[in-house]
Amino acid sequence: MALAIAMLVAVLAQSLGVLGQIINLHFDNRADHFAPRGDLRGVTLMMWIPPILFFLSTFIPAFLAALLARAVSKDP
After folding, report:
1. Among 1, 26, 39, 62, which is disulfide-ready with 34 (CB 3.0 to 4.6 Å)?
2. d(CA 30, CA 75)
3. Is residue 50 helix, strand or coil?
4. Is there a contact between 70 and 2 (Cβ–Cβ < 8 Å)?
5. Which has more confidence, 4 or 39?
6. Element (H, E) at 58
7. What is each CA distance from 16 to 32, 39, 44, 60, 76, in whole angstroms?
8. Which residues, including other chains, have CB under 8 Å from residue 42's CB and lie 6 or more apart?
9. Contact yes or no for 3/63 (Cβ under 8 A)
10. What pLDDT, on the 0 to 100 scale, is given for residue 76?
11. Half-sphere exposure of 29 (CA within 13 A, CB side)
């Protein structure tokens, strides 16, 4: 059962990681858009969002794995 849960989490984490990297490109381009204008608040915001997305892309699969493992391991 542990192997099945690990495979599920690995596939989900890999997919979310790739999706997060694609989304991060958008924020990088937006930061480049704000920089010539001198909008430091916009650049700062665009630099904080990607780490938050990276955290969520690793936290969500791990949290779901813990929930799933707990539900599976309970005695009937």
Report:
1. 39
2. 51
3. helix
4. no
5. 39
6. helix 40-73
7. 24, 30, 24, 9, 33
8. 30, 31, 33, 34
9. no
10. 57
11. 6
Question: Sorting pLDDT into bands at 50, 70 and 90, what band is 29?
Answer: very high
Structure tokens at 9: 């989490």
Residue 10 token pair: 């690995």
Q: Residue type at 53?
A: L
Q: Map tokens 């391991």 to a residue.
A: 73
pLDDT at 4: 81
- Mean pLDDT across the stretch 1-9? 82
How would residue 47 be classed by pLDDT, with cut points 50, 70 and 90? very high
Query: Full-prediction pTM beyond 0.85?
Result: no
pLDDT of 67 higher than 70 = yes
- Listed in sequence order, the residues at least 6 apart from 51 whose beta carbon sits closer than 8 Å to its beta carbon are none
Residue 62: both structure tokens together: 């791990």
